[in-house]
Amino acid sequence: MITGSCLCGKVSYEISGEVGDIVHCHCVTCRKAHGAAFSSVAAVKDCDFTLSGQEWLSSYESSPGKVRYFCSSCGTQIYAKRERTEHLILRLGSLDTDLASKEKNHIWVSQKANWYSITNNLPECQEFE
Predict the structure, then answer these.
(1) Is the CB of residue 25 less than 8 Å from the CB of residue 39?
(2) For residues 36 and 44, what is the distance between their CA atoms, to the nearest angstrom?
(3) What are 14-49's pLDDT values in tens digits?
(4) Which CATH number is 78's domain given?
(5) In which band, very low, low, confident or very high, does the pLDDT at 128 lie, cut at 50, 70 and 90?
(6) Which of 74, 63, 59 has the alpha carbon at shortest distance from 5?
(7) What pTM was estimated for this model as a whole?
(8) What is the dihedral of CA 27, 30, 32, 36, to 10 degrees?
(9) Residue 20 lies in domain
């Protein structure tokens, strides 16, 4: 079982299925939401994700049809959800257990912070691919 939680522990989750490949997103909204050079994410099927502490979850529609969910107490980003999909976008910084997933690529490199250099030789996509 894969588990995760927010910094203060009020929101937690379990994943009963597979976690998709890891993608590092450098878009402006991910950088601002996480206060970091990029956000590492992976897809998880909705039916495999169980959330506890939902009363502490807040949300923000950062772009049309995409909502980000985070702990209202400590601010930890937990996941994002796009309309009309059957998966969520898990924010890997909230994991408590290790993953077997592999890194796939960097996306939105066209919006990458100029002070960060990508050095891990993964494919780089200028936008979302």
Answers:
(1) yes
(2) 22
(3) 999 999 999 999 999 999 999 999 999 999 999 999
(4) 2.170.150.70
(5) confident
(6) 74
(7) 0.91
(8) -100
(9) 2-111
Token pair of 48, please? 């495999």
Q: If DSSP codes are grouped into helix, strand and coil, which group holds residue 2?
A: strand
Sequence-separated (6 or more) residues with CB below 8 Å from residue 97: 1, 2, 3, 4
User: Average pLDDT, stretch 70-99?
Assistant: 97
Residue type, 70: F
Confirm if 111 and 27 have CB atoms less than 8 A apart.
yes
Flag whether 122 is in a domain.
Answer: no
Q: What is the 3-state secondary structure (H, E, C) of 102-121?
A: CEEEEECHHHCCCCCCCCCC
* Separation of first and last alpha carbons in the chain: 29
Within 8 A by CB and 6+ apart from 126, the residues are 108, 109, 110
Q: Is the pLDDT of residue 85 over 70?
A: yes
Residue 11 lies in a domain: yes
59 pairs with which residues across the strands? Answer: 69
Handedness of CA 103, 33, 80, 71 (dihedral sign): positive
